[in-house]
Design brief:
The structure holds 2 protein chains of 2 kinds. Chain A is α+β, with helices and mostly antiparallel strands. Chain A is built from 4 helices and 9 strands. Helix content of chain A is 37%, strand content 25%. In chain A, α1 runs antiparallel to α2 and α2 runs antiparallel to α3. Classes of the chains: A alpha+beta, B mainly alpha. Chain B: Keywords: Cytoplasm, Disulfide bond.
């Protein structure tokens, strides 16, 4: 019996449908409860007069119980509606607390480089990857496939880019760190990303990346099984004078 | 790159580097230091801890040739490779027990 009602509800739009569903559900529950209780009455009528007083008190008892049940269900319905409205700020708080959904968990300060001590027991392999967008004609590749670092120690790595064409090409790059969770611990002191890099015809340059892995990486239980971090750079062709907004900064 | 459809998993948020971008070494002024560093890496099976001296030399070369903003090496995480200045050793206060 509830199935056709639920089917009808699934066709209506989701959000208002949820609210309506709660109301329909509560109403349906009320109706079924009322019907169920009404069906009990004929049995009390069949009882003799001697039981009429008892049946009357029983009826009153049932009525009060009905009322309490009804108020509870009404309260639950109102509570559901309130929860659906309150879920937006609550979810935001939850995301900030647990760091799910990509929100920044821990910032890092630049003075940390001076004071941090390397965690020598934890060796992490950093592999390098280089990509170019299809339209840029640079040859871009890392000069080392991997490097073994420990958290808290600064490390240097090189990429090489060559412009084999006869005209200068301006490239601009961005990077990616996999696994994503480890990306928050991967701090670059200096690199060649997010700024235009101009290569003259037939020029080949070495591009360094100076980075370190935050020593708190060792303390994070989610990173306990992470042994390899992959740093991937991708170069795109930039038009002259184009300014990419730096991520994390706002220009006001 | 992060896609828009990852509701449960984290997406990657790129961050700008702390000290900005390295200017390109168009003239290869520090290429010799880079080659030394790469040689050291290849010899030590790409262990960064063994080649920190060479990386320090490379960064010093960059700073000398105006390819990097000059910074004290402690700020770049090389404080363990720095020798303590001699004046500090001479004027070290004597420990309480022996004095």
């Amino acid at each position: 019996m509830p199935l056709p009602l639920l089917l009808r509800l699934s066709l209506s739009p989701p959000l208002s449908g949820c609210v309506r569903a709660h109301r329909y559900c509560s109403q349906w529950i009320l109706r079924s409860q009322a019907e169920h209780l009404l069906r009990r009455r004929p049995s009390s009528r069949l009882a003799t007069r001697g039981h009429s007083r008892k049946s009357r008190s029983q009826e009153e008892e049932w009525r009060t119980r009905n009322k309490t049940v009804l108020t509870y269900i009404a309260a639950a319905g109102v509570g559901m509606i309130g929860l659906s409205y309150a879920s937006v700020p609550l979810y935001r708080l939850y995301c900030q607390a647990t760091g799910l959904g990509g929100t920044a968990v821990a910032g890092h300060d630049t003075d940390q480089v001076e004071t941090m001590t390397p965690v020598k027991e934890r060796v992490i392999k950093v592999t390098f990857n280089a990509d170019t967008h299809a339209s840029i004609q640079w040859n871009f590749r890392p000069q080392q496939t991997e490097i073994y670092v420990v958290p808290g120690e600064t490390a240097l790595a090189f990429y090489r880019a060559k412009n084999p064409t006869d005209k200068p090409i301006i490239g601009i790059s961005t990077y990616n760190v996999v696994p994503f969770d480890a990306g928050q611990y991967f701090n670059k002191i200096q690199c060649f990303c997010f700024e235009e890099q101009r290569l003259n015809p037939h020029e080949e340059v070495d591009m360094p990346v100076f980075f370190y892995i935050d020593p708190e990486f060792d303390d994070d239980p989610r990173m306990a099984r992470v042994d390899t971090i992959t740093l991937s750079y991708t170069f795109f062709e930039a038009k002259e004078g184009q300014q990419l907004p730096l991520p994390g900064y706002s220009y006001n | 790159m992060s896609t828009a459809m990852n509701f449960s998993s984290k997406s990657f948020k790129p961050r700008a580097p702390d000290k900005g971008s390295f200017p390109l070494d168009h003239f290869g002024e520090c290429k010799a230091f880079k080659e030394k560093f790469m040689q050291c890496l290849r010899e030590n099976s790409f262990d960064n801890s063994k080649c920190r001296l060479q990386s320090k030399d490379y960064l010093e070369c960059r700073m000398d040739h105006q390819l990097m903003a000059r910074e004290p090496l402690q700020k770049l995480g090389f404080k363990d490779l720095m020798d303590p200045p001699p004046s500090q050793e001479e004027s070290k206060p004597c420990p309480e027990k022996s004095c």
